[in-house]
C-alpha cells in the first residue's frame, strides 16, 4: 500500500526561493523530487509524504541556521513556515489521542504544589477525580508561568513520606509523559500519566507525592493532598485556586536581561 502524500502548493515567488536554496540540501533525492512540481494555474503543486515534508523543513532550517545574511534568513524562514503549516500539529494529535482518558467527573481534589527549591512558592489546584495526571501537569505548567514544554514524571511513594528521600524514590511508582515511554530514550517500568486518573491513585488527605518537570533543569515539586472529597461547582476543572510567591524564570538566563541583550 502506497504511503499517503500531502499536496503542497507554492506561488511562483515561493517556488523560485525554494529552487534557489535546494542546491544546498544534503538530501539530493529530496531536491530532485522538488523539481517535479507541476504548474497549475498561477501556482506550483507537488506531493510529499509526511516524512519527506518533515525532511524538507529540516533542510530549510539548516540553510537558515547557517547563513548570516538577514535577507536570506528571512525568506527561508517564511518558506519554512509555509511548509510547516502542512504538517500535522503534534500537540493536537496528542490531545485527540489521550482526551478519552480525561473525564470531568468525580470528587474534587485539592492539591498543594510547592517548588522543592523554595517551598514558600506554591499553588493550590482543584482537580476532579476523573481527570488525569496529564491534566494536572497542564495546570501546574500554567500555574508556574512556564512557556517551554518538557517531559515530566510523577512519583507516588509506596508508603507515607514527609520528603523525597532516596528510600522513598526507590520504592515510588512512576507515572510519566507518554513520550518518555517510546523509543530507547528511557528504560523504566513507568505508567502512562495521560492514561492515569487522579481517583485511580487512591490518594489520601495529608499524603505527599512528587513531580519533576524538565529532566535537564530538574524542577522538582512536592505535592500535598489537602482534600479528596470536595463537591464540584460550575467552574472549570482543573483550576488554580490559590497562589503564594512569584514564579521563578523557567531558565536561569531568563532572569538576566542585560546579558541576554549583550549577546545579541
Describe what you observe in this structure.
This protein is α+β, with helices and mostly antiparallel strands and 264 residues long. It has helices at residues 12-21, 28-34, 50-65, 70-84, 90-98, 133-143, 166-171, 257-263, and strands at 5-11, 38-40, 43-49, 108-115, 122-128, 152-156, 173-176, 191-192, 208-213, 219-230, 239-244. It is built from eight helices and eleven strands. The strands form two sheets. The protein has an eight-stranded mixed beta sheet with strand order 8-7-6-9-10-4-5-11, covered by helices on one side. Strands 1-3-2 form a three-stranded antiparallel beta sheet. It is elongated. The model is unreliable at 257-264 (pLDDT under 50).
Outline of the structure:
The protein is 31% helix and 25% strand.
Question: What is this structure's SSE topology?
Answer:
Blueprint: E1 5-11, H1 12-21, H2 28-34, E2 38-40, E3 43-49, H3 50-65, H4 70-84, H5 90-98, E4 108-115, E5 122-128, H6 133-143, E6 152-156, H7 166-171, E7 173-176, E8 191-192, E9 208-213, E10 219-230, E11 239-244, H8 257-263
Parallel strand pairs: 7-8
Antiparallel strand pairs: 1-3, 2-3, 4-5, 4-10, 5-11, 6-7, 6-9, 9-10
Helix pairs in contact: 3-4
Key attributes of the depicted protein:
264 residues, alpha+beta, Structural Genomics Hypothetical 15.5 Kd Protein In mrcA-pckA Intergenic Region, Chain A, 2 domains, 3-stranded antiparallel beta sheet, 11 strands
Amino acid at each position: 500500500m502506497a504511503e499517503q502524500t500531502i499536496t503542497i502548493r507554492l506561488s511562483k515567488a515561493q517556488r523560485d526561493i525554494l529552487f534557489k536554496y535546494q542546491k544546498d540540501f544534503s538530501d539530493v533525492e529530496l531536491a530532485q523530487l522538488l523539481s517535479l512540481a507541476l504548474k497549475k494555474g498561477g501556482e506550483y503543486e507537488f506531493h510529499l509524504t509526511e516524512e519527506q515534508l518533515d525532511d524538507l523543513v529540516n533542510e530549510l532550517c539548516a540553510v537558515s541556521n547557517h547563513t548570516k545574511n538577514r535577507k536570506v534568513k528571512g525568506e527561508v524562514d517564511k518558506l519554512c513556515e509555509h511548509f510547516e503549516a502542512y504538517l500535522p500539529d503534534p500537540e493536537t494529535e496528542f490531545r485527540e489521542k489521550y482526551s478519552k482518558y480525561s473525564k470531568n467527573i468525580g470528587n474534587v481534589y485539592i492539591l498543594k504544589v510547592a517548588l522543592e527549591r523554595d517551598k514558600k512558592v506554591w499553588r493550590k489546584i482543584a482537580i476532579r477525580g476523573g481527570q488525569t495526571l496529564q491534566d494536572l501537569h497542564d495546570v501546574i505548567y500554567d500555574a508556574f508561568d512556564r512557556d517551554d514544554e518538557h517531559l515530566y514524571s510523577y512519583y507516588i511513594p509506596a508508603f507515607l513520606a514527609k520528603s523525597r528521600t532516596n528510600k522513598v524514590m526507590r520504592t515510588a511508582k512512576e507515572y510519566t509523559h507518554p513520550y518518555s515511554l517510546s523509543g530507547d530514550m528511557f528504560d523504566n517500568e513507568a505508567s502512562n500519566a495521560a492514561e492515569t486518573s487522579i481517583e485511580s491513585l487512591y490518594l489520601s488527605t495529608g499524603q505527599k507525592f512528587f513531580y519533576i518537570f524538565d529532566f535537564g533543569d530538574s524542577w522538582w515539586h512536592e505535592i500535598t493532598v489537602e482534600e479528596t472529597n470536595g463537591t464540584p461547582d460550575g467552574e472549570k476543572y482543573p483550576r488554580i485556586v490559590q497562589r503564594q510567591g512569584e514564579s521563578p524564570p523557567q531558565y536561569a538566563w531568563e532572569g538576566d536581561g542585560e546579558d541576554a541583550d549583550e549577546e545579541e
